[in-house]
User: What shape does this take?
Amino acid sequence: MSTTTAAARPVAPAPETTGRKISPASGKRRRAIAQWGFVAPAVIFMVLFFGYPLVRNIVMSFQDYSPSTFFTGEAPFNGFDNWKNVFQDDLFGKALWQTIVFTIGSLLGQFCIGLALAVFFNRHFPLGGLLRSLILLPWLVPMVVSGIVWRRILDQDTGVLNSFLGLFGLGDTPWLTSTSVALVAVVLVNIWIGIPFNMVILYGGLQEIPKELYEAASLDGASAWRTFRSITLPLLRPVITVVLVLGFMSTVKILDLILALTDGGPADSTQTLGTLTYQNSFVQLDFGAGAVVGNVLILISAVFAVFYLRANRNEGK
Amino acid sequence: MTAHPQAAARPPRRRSRRALAPLTVVSALVATAALTGCGQQRDDNVYTLLNSSTDESYHRWDGDTLARCSKQLGVTIEQQSVPAPQVMTKALRMASSKSLPDIVQFDGSEMPTFAETGGLMDLEKLGVSTEDIPQGIVDYGSYDGTYYGAARTVNTLALFYNKDILDKAGLEVPTTWDEMRETAKKLTQGSQYGIALSAGGAEDGVYQFTPFMWSNGGDETDLDSPEVVQALDYWKALIGDGSLSKSTVNWTQADVNDQFMAGNAAMMINGPWQVETLNTKKDLNWGIAQIPVPQKGDDSVGPLGGGMLTIPDIGDTEREKMSARIITCMTSEQEEITYALNSWMIPANQKAADTWRGKVPELSSLADQVATARSRTAKLGAGWSSVSLALQSAFQGALTGQESEAVLKKAQQRLESGN
Assistant: This one.
C-alpha cells in the first residue's frame, strides 16, 4: 500500500542551476543530466523491482515452467496451454467468485465499522485517545498470528466463540468446518483486521473538515444525519476513495490469513485467487499455471489502480 | 533539517553538483546489487546439509550427529534448516543460482519431483550401500529404479489410545473397522470424542487417509473405485456417529495430538513424531497399536514417511563422494539408533531396527506397521502432488456433507483431464 502512494507522488523538481561561467548550451545539458540523476533512482528501482517481475510473470504464463527449469534454465514456450488449463479448471471459477465475495464483504464491513468508529472518536471525549490507539492493535499483530489465534477461537467444539454463543443456545456454529459458513467466518476475521486501517485514515479525513461548517449547519437546525450526509460524506469523498481503493488492492490478493485459518478448505470453499496461485506454484510446482492466476490478479488490481489515479487527478483539478 | 547549515551559504551551482554525485552512486549501487550473481564459491572443507529440523530438539540432535561425523571424516558439516514445506522451493531456487548445498534432506513424497529434474545423484554409484536395508525402504528412497535417497529412520501412522479411558470403560483396543467404530461410539461422552484424526486440507489429511484407502485395497491411481469410496464412507460414518469431531477437516496432525492430550479424544490416528510432545504430559497413560483393518486378517497398510538424505548434482565428483561418506556416517547403525531413540522413529537399517526394538518394546507394533507400509510415490512419482490435492478436496467435500462417490468421481475426472 505504501509503495502505491509513494509512486503516485511526483518526483522532486530538479534544482535550478545558475552558473555564471557556463555557456547556455552546456548549462542545458548539465541541467538535463541533473534532472535524470534525480529521476534515475526511482526509475531504476521501478524497473528492477516492479517492471522485471511483472514482465517475467507474464512471460512465465506462456511457458512450460517446471522444476527442471531451475536446473536447465530452459522453459519452452507452450502458447496458451497454461491459460487454457487454468480457465478450464472448475476451481478457477470457484476461486474467482469467492475472491469477489471475500473482497466485497471485507471492504463493506471494514469501511462501515471503520467510518462509524472514526465519527465516534471525532467527538473527543475523555480517554478517547487511549481507546483509539487500543483499536489499532489488530493492525499491529502479524497476519499469521491473528490467523492462528482466530483458528482456535473459531474451533467448533473447543473454541471460545462457540462457548460464549452457547450461553444463548447457539453454541454449535461450524465456523471453519462447513463449506457454507467458512467463507463468512474468514470474511469476519478479515473485517476485524481491516477496521483499524479504515478508521485511522477516515479519522484523519474527518479532522480536515472545517469546524465552521458544522457550526453553520447546527445554526440552520440541521439534524445529525443531515449534517453527516451533506457535510461529512461529500467532504470526506477523496479520503473514502483512497481507503476503498487501497483496501481493495490489499484484500483481493489475500493469502496469509486464509492459509493460516483454513488452508483454502474445507473442500476448497475458501480458496481465493491468492491461495490458488500459491497452490499451483508451490504445491504442484506448476509455475506456469501459478503465473496465469497471478496475472489475473495483477490485471484486476491494475484496473482499480487506474480508477485510483483518475480519482486523484480529478481531485487535483 | 539543519544538519548542514553552512550548505545554505554556498552558491546553488555547487549544491546541485554535490547532489548529483551521490545520486549517481546510489543508482549504480542499486543496479550492481541487483545484477550481481548469487553463484557462490564452495569452501573446500566445509559441507552443508539443508534440512527441515527447525524444532530446537531436532536441530540439536542433527547437530550432534553432524559433529560426530565431522570429527570422523575430518571436515566441517554445517546444518541449514528451513520449515518443511519450504525445503523443495528453497532447493530449487538454490539450483537456479548454482548454490546447491552438498546434501538435502527431502520428505519422501518430494524426492521424486526433484529426482525427475535429473538433479540428484545415484547414491549407490557414489558408494552409499543398501546392505541390511529392507527392500520396502530401498524402494521408498528410489525413483525409476535408482536409489537417490537414504533414510536414517522411517515412520508411519498408528492408533494411539488412552489406556486409562479404555480400561475404565472396560474396552479392548480395536483391531477392525467395526470394532473401532463401536469402541469410538462407546467412548464418546460429554466433551470427549471417541477418536480424533486429521482430515485437514494439506498433505497431513491425505497422509491420514492412505491407511484406510490402502488397507481396504484401494489405490491412488483409481480414486473412484468402490474400495476408496468405502474407506471415505467409513470416515463419514465416524462423523455421522458423532464419534469424530466435525472440526477434523480443519485439523493438522499436531492439532489432533493436542486434542488427544487435552482429553478431548480417547483414541487418535497419529505418528511417532508426536511421542516427544505426548510424554511431556506425565499423567497421560497412552498405548499404541496398528491401525484397524476392514476385516479380521487383512493387512494394515500404512504410509511410509520420513526424511531422506540426497546428494544434488553440483558437478564436483570429489565433493559428492565426500557427501556420500557423510551420508554413510549419518546412516550408520549407531547413528540411526541414537536418532531413532531421540525422535521415536524406526531405524531404516534392519540390524539397527532389531536393536532398537529391544530398547523400546512399547513401540514394537509401530515397527510391524512399518514392515507393511507403502510409499505414497511408488506408483505415481512426481504425479503424487496432483493426486494429493484432488484427494484433499474430495474427502473434505464428503465430510462436509456431499456423497463420497460423487466427490471421488469428480476428483478422478479432474486428474484425468490433466488439471
Remarks:
- Chain B has a mean pLDDT of 87.
- The first strand of chain B starts at residue 46 and ends at 51.
- Chain B has two domains: 46-155+305-372, 158-303+380-416.
- Residues 48 and 261 of chain B are 37 Å apart (CA to CA).
